[in-house]
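Lab notebook page, bench 4
Experiment: in silico fold of construct C2
Operator: M.H.
Input chain length: 210 residues
Purpose: comparison with the prior construct
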Amino acid sequence: MSYRNYHTIHIGDSRVVICSEPLVEEHASLMADAELSFSRAKIVKKVETNKLIALITTNPDLAFERLKEQFVVVEAAGGVVLNECDELLMIRLREKWDLPKGHVEAGESKREAALREVEEECGVVGEIVGNEPLVETWHAYDTYGRWELKRTTWWQMRATKSATAAQAEEGITAAEWCSMDRVEEHLKESYRTIKEVVAALSLKMNNCYE
């Protein structure tokens, strides 16, 4: 579902959408105060009993920036990698299907981090397609009492060396090239953020074919 002028944060299995108008889907709502701010504590409490929360405000961009100040922002990058058959590279990690990604290390760009993570986790060497990322996703989580907000910048890539080797020491049990039918099956055992990334890829590919 798309909304005008919005930001989405994932907390566990719940979505928090910062928007200027109520959502079409059934949801719980919180309204911004006079300073266009939301309380992280109230949001965390709300997601305990709701899968979709709308944070309604007259200025979603400003409200999002102010909410970010209540978290430690962590940068990550990932690869959305296709081979010569337009099959998508997916990994099996902790009983879920996922895409290769990881934290951006000191001194490296997000592009460099994405390429490195793909090679480390899957053994696949790739090159980035285009100059802009495909999409960004935001995921909030509590790490031993410290709330972090992870921004993952996803880059579309084309494999230049497609032989796979799953990084077992990181708990990855499979690195697999998947047809789009296979991707749809794997998404049933994946995360909502990954579904959003695949949706962004599909939209871009469809636009290219029109």
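Observations: The mean pLDDT is 94. Residues 192-209 form the longest helix (18 residues).
Next step: discuss at group meeting.
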